[in-house]
Amino acid sequence: AAPTPPGPFWRSPPGCHHCRLRGVRARLGAWSLSACDGADSMQAQDYAPTMLGSALSGTLARLPTHPLDTLKARLQTLRAGSMAAGARPPSALELLRTIARTEGLRGLYRGLGVTLTLGPFASVLYFTGYEGSRDALKRALPGAPAALSHLSAGLIAEALSCVLFVPVDVIKERMQVQGGRPAGAGTTYYTGTVHAITSIYRGEGLAGVYRGYWATVGSFGPFSALYFAFYEAAKAAYLGHAGPEAPRGAAQMPFWASLLSGASAGAAASVLTNPLDLVKLRLQVQRGGAGLDFGYTGLIQGLRRMAAEEGLRAMMRGAGTRVAFHTPTTAISMALFETCKDAVATSMGRR
Fold it and tell me: Would you say 271 and 330 are in contact if contact means Cβ atoms under 8 Å apart?
């Protein structure tokens, strides 16, 4: 017969004081074992390696890929009505040359300061939230398909991390798009991260700092859900193919395999969610320092208005640079995250 699950560890058995303490310790041990039974469940974890690994990987992955993010932001804020009749929007390469010629390297790295300052904390929330919710869902739903826990955990991780990611995005994106537009009457030109934060807060309040919050959750929630589902599927496929020779540890894959898995997952999720990201970015920069106003009030309304005014084709504007940004970013970030997490765990004696 199956053993009877222990009662709550805080409910002390009757008896003397020392007996009660021994009983509580016994219940704690039995509770932790029974709560983590099953092949797909994990024992209570210490997420310190995850937290430190995510902070390191988020910072290192951003440095080489930030210029691509700047290109994506500039391309996605272009509208058909803002260009001369018959003119086509510039390609990513043409825009890169223009920024490099007129603004230099500083223009490509505009908005990097706030990303390096608050980004690591957001990455900690993101990866720790994903692993924690994924493990909790696996314990709570032991018979459910693995993809369900990966999709759900990705959504939860995004909702948690958006508390920090949204202010970072608002400040970063407003600084990125202003470089290509001259400052004129009634237009605020942000001279730096601190100036951007104080100007947005004074002029628009906390709502301005968190502009597009629900649009971000609505766009990056599906991205994170799809990304982690694709990545975990690729990881499982590699481990299944490698068999017992596969390396063990936090990473469970060599660096190159993590890179390829992260790259393919990031590229697929980027293409599928590009229309959502485009509207989200326009919501965050409108009425901002670049003097832009797209007339969007929400994610769905923005999608409808863009389709009506610019056509369905416009929904994929910036998709190439989005893929070019997210593919190396997610590849480097995930590979470094797995490696850094494993290294931190080893140095802390957790391996």
Answer: no
**DSSP state, 316?**
G
Inter-residue contact 99 to 108 (CB < 8 Å): yes
CA pair distance 312, 302, nearest whole angstrom: 12
Task: Find all residues with CB under 8 Å of 199, minimum gap 6, and list them.
Answer: 188, 190, 289
What is the end-to-end Cα distance of the chain in Å, rounded? Answer: 35
Q: Do 66 and 109 contact (CB within 8 A), yes or no?
A: yes
Q: In this predicted model, what pLDDT tens digit does every residue of 239-263 receive, in sequence order?
A: 887 655 554 444 468 888 999 999 9
Size of the chain, expressed as the number of residues it contains = 351
Q: Which of 328, 327, 306 is nearest to 76 (CA)?
A: 306
Whether 82 has a pLDDT exceeding 50, the answer reads: yes
Q: Is the dihedral of CA 234, 47, 216, 147 positive or negative?
A: positive
- pTM of this prediction? 0.75
C-beta of residue 296 within 8 angstroms of C-beta of residue 302: yes
* 113-167 per-position pLDDT tens digit: 999 999 999 999 999 999 999 999 999 998 889 999 999 999 999 999 999 999 9
Residue 84, Ramachandran bin (φ over 0: left; ψ between -120 and 50: alpha; else beta): beta
Q: Which of 227, 265, 258, 234 is nearest to 342 (CA)?
A: 258
pLDDT digit string, tens, across residues 156-199: 999 999 999 999 999 999 899 887 555 554 567 888 889 999 99
Widest CA span of the chain, in angstroms? 88
Cα–Cα dist 158/162, whole Å: 6
Q: Do the beta carbons of residue 71 and residue 321 sit within 8 Å?
A: yes
Say if residues 49 and 341 touch (Cβ distance below 8 Å): yes
